[in-house]
Amino acid sequence: MSTLRTNALEGVDAKNSITIVAGAGNVTTTNVQSGIAKAWVHGSATAALTGSFAISSGVDNGTGDYSYNLTNPVESDENSVFVMSPRSSSDRAGPAIFSTTSRFIVHVFDISSESLVDSGVNVTVHGNLA
């Protein structure tokens, strides 16, 4: 097996697109810039960053209400996507939404009581950076 080490890759046909050959004849083309997560956070029940990438800080706004600040803003809150899951009980859910292109809010609900509850969260942000 060989190892390729480089500081930069550039596609020949389209900037930021490269072809990845995965095994005998399996060819996949991917847009590297659009295809990777731009930020992620493992936040505690007090919004402390227990693990993160491109998140500068977290704020506990009250029971089940958290906000996180991105190190780099996204291009558009309308063209960005979140994947969010509470880090506790399976009967919890909630949305993540942008309040600005540099800040997003997470609410965690207990499904049975339909009320906000404290919980750690896992959130990934996808979209283009500004």
Summarize the main sheet: 4 strands, antiparallel
Bin the helical content.
Answer: under 10%
Order of helices and strands: EEHEEEEEEEEEEE
The strand order across the widest sheet is 4-3-13-7
Distance between the termini: 38 Å
Structural class: mainly beta
Gyration radius, rounded: 18 Å
- Strand tally, please? 13
Query: What percent strand?
Result: over 45%
The number of helical runs is 1
**Mean of residue pLDDT values:** 85
Low-confidence stretches: none
Shape: elongated
Summarize the structure.
This protein has 130 residues and is mainly β. The chain is built from 1 helix and 13 strands, in the order ββαβββββββββββ. A hairpin with a 4-residue loop joins strand 11 and strand 12 (115-116).
Structure characterization notes:
With 130 residues, the protein is mostly beta strands. It has one helix spanning 32-35; strands spanning 17-21, 27-31, 39-43, 49-53, 55-62, 65-70, 81-86, 92-93, 96-100, 103-107, 109-110, 115-116, 121-126. The strands form four sheets. It has a four-stranded antiparallel β-sheet, with no helix packed on it. A four-stranded antiparallel β-sheet has the order 5-6-10-9, with no helix packed on it. The protein is elongated and about 55 Å long.
